[in-house]
Amino acid sequence: MKHIIIILFAILGIVQPAVSQETQPRKKVALVLSGGGAKGVAHIGVLKVLEKAGIPIDIITGTSMGSIVGGLYACGNDAMRLDSIVRSQDWSVVLSDRDNLKYQSLKEREQHNTYAISSSLRWNKKKSTIGGGIIIGKNIGKLLRTFTYPYNDSIDFDTLPIRFACVATDVVDNSEIVFHRGVVSEAMRASMSIPGAFAPVRKGKQVLVDGGLRNNYPADIAKEMGADYIIGVSVASKQRTAEKLSTTGDILMQIVDFNCKNKYDENMAITDIPILVNTEGYSTASFSSSAIDTLIQRGEDAAMAHWDEIVALREKLSPLEVKPRLQATQEPLSDNPSFRIGELTFVNMTPSDEAFIRTKFKLKEGDSIDNERANLITISIRLDLFYQSADFHVERNVIDMPDGTKAARINFIAGEQKTNKISAGIRFDNEEILALQTNIAFPIRKRIPMQLDFTFRLGKRILAEGNWEIHPTNFLHPSITLAFLRNEINLYEYGSKSYNLTYNRLHAVVAPLTFIVRNFHISMGSAVDYYFNYNLLLDQVQEHYIEMPKHEHFIRYFAKVGYSSENNWYFPTRGSKFNARYGYYTDNFITLNDEIGVHALSAMWRTNFSLSKHLTIQPMLYGRILRSKDSPIILCNIMGGEWFGHYIDQQMPFAGVGNIELQWDKFFAAQIQAQYAVTTNNLILFRFATAQDGDTYREVLKRKTMLGSSLSYYYNAPVGPIGMSLGYSNVTDKLYFYFNVGYVF
Length: 745
What we know:
This protein is an alpha+beta fold. The longest helix is centred in the first third of the chain and has 22 residues, at 2-23. It is elongated. The relative contact order is 0.08.
């Protein structure tokens, strides 16, 4: 018996270690990602290398941009997916509060590309609760919410495919706030709120900003979460020397960098594999496509420099299970998830506003709604109902439906009621010299939303205009416009000035049928134009003599349609644009000077073909046809300049012609433009145009073909295009030079 017991113990001694080795928990690997703004895209390059090496990541902690990359990765977006996300964004939109072009109407796009400055006018003393930064952050919030789906509810971050935590700073008491639970996108948004640039995230009595102010490299948080091995990535810039502290921006960034050194040395000391990425030459704002390419590559290079250490760590974990938790994501990620509506709630909105949105978007319980449609609804809440901000939140599977299934509660949350808005634009060119324009918008919150706009312009052209627009339905926006204009224009024939025309104009338009649907703007109505105090100065050529009335009026009926899918107002690289307009001019509702009235039909079509990343070809066809016995000079076809309708409504541009040339009643033109983007905002344009005109269609074919070309350089600045053009045409037979600063109005 004694021998049997000894044998049993011996067997147990052999077997037990093997069982212990098989059941021993694998040591946990943590990835720590520092803040650094745009420089943080380098983290994606590091992730590519770690995936290549087969390193299992169990814990991710991050701050600021590190929290964004880390949080998106923890939710199930692998490195290639993250690479695609950062390259496909228009960061000028994401890092602003502007609506994406595909969500803006043509009128809104024109407004945005006319005024360089916009601000709210507040008549009461009530303070805003969403301020604290230049950017509210609605676009970055949408981006984070989209790519963290399906983890948009308040959850424990330990339940994500990879355990996650991120850091923010509470500026109320300068304390470090660590997010281990909550809404993932909201935690990331708080962590990256650069003070002054982005509005803080407010939670109760906390006012949360960028976590880099307290802990820009949170390795200690990873350790507290149970990390056995820490791989850390820092994208911090080197400290600037005295020679490099030459501007205010340099000094401010040096102060910020010193603040972000808090706890850095201690946390770096507990890092097993510290990866320091060389970000020299790039800043927190380097979101250009070329910068993203370089920074991701530098991240890969920095990680590959530690390849032996990474492989050694991988071997330490063998032969234990190393399958990354990332592969355990049970629900596939979607850019545009759809939800079944169980309940709709409208927070901080009046019952009439709620009824408007339900009717406009045909919302009812039991139907489905996706992220894109929900985003359109939030935009309508702001633009149609005049709330200063709007958002939505989805609570999944919380409503019991009659058929026994679960559905979502969709919450639409409106911010403060929008205050009056003032916008201002300034431009300079070598023809008009200086022009100023201001627009003031007054939203009127009634059962049917409406808005009053007043526009004023000073310069060679003077304008005072009032517009009343009503929003009764989803797409119908009838309007009434009253305006006074004073204009002075020089009219040329073949490069020689023939007339100088000065006039005042009273203008009233009623457009009861105005339809605004995404990329379309259609309007039909009638107008009265009263021209008075004509002053026409003639040259000495006898055949140019025109007897002008002192006053003149027109009653006209019009229809116009506009369409644009272009991705940029001034320098598009994709999409198409089409405009067409018809007007019938009379002086007594039927005839003009006891003859048939003037029929005016104009059209323009342009499309864009991107031949490469830098080169875009843009063919364009346009023209205007007048049909009448004798067209008044104020309605004649006019060609020249850089832009459509710049100095006078019917103006059509022509390459190589800087002045305004009078044309015959039938005018047809074609242009091809080559647009080369040297960098994102530096562009070189070459235009070649040809045109035919005549008093009759037969004459059009017989007259001399007009040819012109121009070479331009433009910088697409935040205040509007800045550039110059040099051109020549056989119409004027001379060179022309044009210089422009600012948006066109």
